[in-house]
């Protein structure tokens, strides 16, 4: 199976529309791949908090349309990264006044929407994404012909219980788009490898390059196998990381070293 991770340079000088067109062209160039992955919030930048509301779009908005067409043209499964989604209002009033979500879109090779995932863990603590966007509540997996993909986004990478849930739902390949800051790049690499080892799964983690909203991005998109070995890693700049991997290695690893069978669930806290 061949995957292409598109480590997009997100910078303030390029308009959102121009970036959509440019990235769509890059997706079309990956016609020989089975799976293409884009980063988190690549239209606006993950730290461009002031742009979230202004650039928010409905699920089937401009990015949806452009990426669905690109997936179909290339004939690939496309994890189109995430967008600032403006959901419909619960009250049923005019469009455009519902909550915001950090929402990932996954398209089939025919351009159909295969899945949408609203990011569960929002970064920022008491500011930024954590207060501007709502939290998702559902784990999402997508069945490809070769593997079952578990979908997560950026800050989710710090929460191992989410990935255990994805594995319990059948995930064998964990795909993680991100807008990870350069100042914590060592955490990015460490956590990607940890999630692969503890879940005996492939990790495909695709970040952004460049600087947006004054925050230098880590880059260094990475592909890790179920034993924690790094199969490929990008540099700091814009780059297309292409890697071939064998999905059957997940089942073989779990059979050879059946650590997941020894999990103990439902442990009670110690009494004081």
From TrEMBL:
It holds the Pfam family CN_hydrolase. Residues 1-247 form the CN hydrolase domain. PANTHER family: DEAMINATED GLUTATHIONE AMIDASE (PTHR23088:SF27), NITRILASE-RELATED (PTHR23088). One of its GO terms (molecular function) is hydrolase activity. It comes from the Bacteria. PROSITE patterns: CN_HYDROLASE (PS50263), UPF0012 (PS01227). Keywords: Hydrolase. Gene3D superfamilies: Carbon-nitrogen hydrolase. Belongs to the carbon-nitrogen hydrolase superfamily. NIT1/NIT2 family. This is Hydrolase.
């Amino acid at each position: 199976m061949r995957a292409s991770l598109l480590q997009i340079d997100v910078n303030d000088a390029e308009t959102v529309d121009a970036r959509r067109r440019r990235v769509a062209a890059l997706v079309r160039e990956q016609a020989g791949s089975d799976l293409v992955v884009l980063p988190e919030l690549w239209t606006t930048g993950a730290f461009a908090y002031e742009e979230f509301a202004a650039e928010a779009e409905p699920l089937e908005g401009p990015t949806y349309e452009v990426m669905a067409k690109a997936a179909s043209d290339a004939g690939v499964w496309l994890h189109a990264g995430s967008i600032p989604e403006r959901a419909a209002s619960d009250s049923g009033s005019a469009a455009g006044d519902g909550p915001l979500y950090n929402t990932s879109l996954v398209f089939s090779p025919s351009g159909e929407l295969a899945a949408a995932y609203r990011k569960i863990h929002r970064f920022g603590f008491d500011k930024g994404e954590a207060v501007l966007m709502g939290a998702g509540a559902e784990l999402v997996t997508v069945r490809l012909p070769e593997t079952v993909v578990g979908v997560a986004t950026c800050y989710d990478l710090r929460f191992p219980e989410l990935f255990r849930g994805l594995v319990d739902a059948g995930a064998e390949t964990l795909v993680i788009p991100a807008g990870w800051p350069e100042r914590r790049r060592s955490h990015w690499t460490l956590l990607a490898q940890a999630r692969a080892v503890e879940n005996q799964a492939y990790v495909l983690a695709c970040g952004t390059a460049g600087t947006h909203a004054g925050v230098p991005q880590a880059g260094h998109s990475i592909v890790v196998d179920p034993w924690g070995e790094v199969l490929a890693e990008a540099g700091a700049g814009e780059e297309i990381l292409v890697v071939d991997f064998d999905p059957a290695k997940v089942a073989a690893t779990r059979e050879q070293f059946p650590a997941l069978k020894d999990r103990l669930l439902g442990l009670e806290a110690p009494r004081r």
